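anyone seen this seq b4? input:
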Amino acid sequence: MDDLLQRTAGLPEIRLEEGDAVVREGDVGGGLWILVSGSLQVSRLGSAINTIRRPGAAVGEVSLLLDQPCGATVVASEPSVLRYAADGRALLDSDPAVMRLIASGLAERLNFVTTYLADLKNQYGDSPGLAMVSEVLGQLAHHQGPPARPGSARDPDPDY
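predicted toks r here
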């Protein structure tokens, strides 16, 4: 992701203190953030799901590319510096190298998730509550339709 830091060197830098929000779940996006230094906590539906520490990591790209509200809240978990493109779409449209780097980052994350789910299936596939892993993997591998709706135990018929 060092390449993304190089490609975005001209963007303004924003300094955040611990607890400052980068984006909030449900907010309309449009901007693209690139982590320069620090650490960010990602949460969805109030549950922490990830910590971002890698310089050059993007925030807001999923919302931007899917033209949907932000799907998670991202908060600085320590003093952090981020680069900010207020019009993230314009940045992506103007620089194919940035678009490719964003796509590569998303592909890495998708590969990690599918590898993790496959490992869960191989280790615990017969366990109660994990029977849906095969279906989730199949949907991830072949999803080409309309955007999936998040599902849970409260949603007996999720789109994955």
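The CA atoms of residues 41 and 103 lie 22 Å apart. The mean pLDDT is 85. kinda curious what u guys think
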